[in-house]
């Protein structure tokens, strides 16, 4: 076993980017997204002008609140335009024009390190299958942040008894500073015997040709500093995993292919290869929860791009139950809020093109902006009704609003329609609506927690929790309290629960979702 001393947190590179031949990136898609949103917003402002004037006549505060509501709707339409146009662009245009480099002949085999990151969630089978590569010059290191002696023994036994050609290095550090980023930096900054490294999460299984094929992308795209592989969700052990894994299978190839061509393609935390030149130019991984996108931005400013390899298909596991999914969602929200606080100025100053910046904003700001949506609800459900005021929008605005509410489901429908039974597809879409709708409360709590107390990297549980009646009440109480509270407020102020129905129903469904994995 080898121990490596911790290193100081890296800093973002301030070097000016070099010009690199990466291939075309197009403004067309985001031009269409902005055009659609602007047309709808202009029509909204035109038809709502009498409403705005009436509200200002009622009082300046009412006028400003009305403008705030319209601004939120305009942002919702912009984000919805993205969700609508992304899958259409992929299936109608990009699917048959994907970047697919030919195999390259590696004369001087670069040294590649497989870095398996674990923290009390070691999976021996996943690592053993990932190590089985058709490439000669690579090494394996288990970067173990576990504090559970049981997992530490499992890792030591695996390294000592592994019968393959590779010697497994186990690396532990004295503390867990910097979360996953600190774990990676602790190894990479202290070792010199590597040219590329591959990031593996504990449940990751990479295909046998991963290293060889990823190197093909580096050869074909000289500007690439990161090659991010595709993923599907496998090893589904219960109903929860089997149903919601469909979303992983459809999301990865469509959204990442579009981002690679028309937006900002990022390292996505695992199943990716990074070059030494890129790592050093970016200054290592920033010690934040969302280390993957922050590193990608630093790499982009240093002149490197992230390539997406749709034909390299890795396996990952969907969270095993609702409670694990909830914990992962909260971590993502906290990480994105931390990203907003620390990286907004960096993005604005970056040399990235305008549509890359917009792509980052629309995808990473969505979860934390739940808190802004809370203000929207307070204005419409509490303040205006109590003040004996209301906003009556033109009926036509319901059409784009409903369309954009359903837009996030469009990609799943197009992707799964040809080969999934329609009854199961309908069930998946309905359950997904409940699942993500119930995450509103989690996003709100995580956003507030991150703003007040900072963010913390939480490891997603890999084993489902057995939930009995007592545990069910404990886990559901917050959701039900939230649902009944907003329903009571809406009833008292507006005489109806209809304004909060889309928040109330998913929250009430939480007990069903919590027990769903138990069949």
Automatic annotation (TrEMBL):
- All copies of the Glycosyltransferase 2-like domain together span 196-404
Report the locations given in the UniProt record. Answer: Membrane
* Membrane topology, as annotated: Multi-pass membrane protein
Keywords carried by this UniProt record:
Glycosyltransferase, Membrane, Transferase, Transmembrane, Transmembrane helix
What are this entry's molecular-function GO terms?
A: glycosyltransferase activity
Secretion signal: which residues?
none
**Region entry Disordered: which residue ranges?**
1-23
> From the record, what ranges are coiled-coil?
none
Q: The organism sits in which domain of life?
A: Bacteria
**Can you cite an annotated GO cellular component?**
membrane
Q: Main localisation, per the record?
A: membrane
Q: Where are the transmembrane segments?
A: 28-53, 59-78, 360-383, 395-416, 428-448, 479-505
InterPro entries according to UniProt? Glyco_trans_2-like, Glycosyltr_2/OpgH_subfam, Nucleotide-diphossugar_trans
**PANTHER family linked:** CELLULOSE SYNTHASE CATALYTIC SUBUNIT A [UDP-FORMING]
- From the Swiss-Prot or TrEMBL record, give the protein name: Glycosyltransferase, catalytic subunit of cellulose synthase and poly-beta-1,6-N-acetylglucosamine synthase
